[in-house]
Amino acid sequence: MIAYGVIAAGSDWLNGVDCSFRHDVINNKSAWFDDFIPFAPAVAAFSMDLCGVESVHRLPDMFVIYLLSNALESGIVFTMKNVTSRARPDGSNYDSFPSGHTSTAFLAAEFLHQEYGCKSVWISICGYGTATLTGISRIYNNRHWTSDVIAGAGIGIMSAKLVYLIYPWLRETFCRKDKAPKTLVFPAYANGNFSLNMSYGF
User: 98: closest CA among 28, 8, 16?
Assistant: First the structure.
């Protein structure tokens, strides 16, 4: 997806696909919801956990994973926008490639899938369906080209998957606790005498 977006940005033929799809989708109305629905799958994931539906990770871990994923995704999107400086379809600025709204939405969808996809395939379908609607709305509102949206989707999915891949190592490295204390002090009573004992594990 990311490769397609990069290639399309410099391909006359794929630019034609962008223009054609934009012509088919856009009209004079505006989809107002594209500023809100990118976060819907993530909100659903946290809400399900709070309602008692068991997730793959505990709630604190979910927060950390989601924040790390967004940090990675934001860094990639910000860098690529500054490097490519592609003009938006409406000509408002040069921050078109890739679509940040779409990457955020697909990151949230992958996050929902990772935590609850094992419960039901419909949970993943709803999450990715919402993310797809976000991408289409960005084209519908004349804010992005098709290739911007496709690349953004790839970045969002990739960011979440990478964090899920490395998170066990991060948790083991930075949150490791000794399984048992090395020093143990305890009282004892024997033959009418009290004593204070200490043991130390090497």
Answer: 8
The pTM of the whole model exceeds 0.90: no
In eight-state DSSP terms, residue 88 is: P
Peptide bond into 98 cis (omega under 30): yes
Residue 41: phi and psi, rounded to 5, are -60, -40
Main-chain phi, psi angles of 51, to 5 degrees: -85, 5
What confidence tens digit (pLDDT) does each residue in 83-112 have?
A: 999 999 988 999 999 999 999 999 999 999
Helix axis angle, 121-140 to 12-25, nearest 10° = 90
The H-or-E segment that residue 60 falls in is helix 59-84
Q: Where are the alpha helices (DSSP H) in 85-192?
A: 100-116, 121-140, 146-174
DSSP 112: H
Neighbouring CB atoms inside 10 A of 87's CB total 13
Which of 114, 116, 109, 112 is CA-nearest to residue 53?
A: 116
Give the number of C-alpha atoms closer than 13 A to the C-alpha of residue 190, restricted to the C-beta side.
Answer: 5
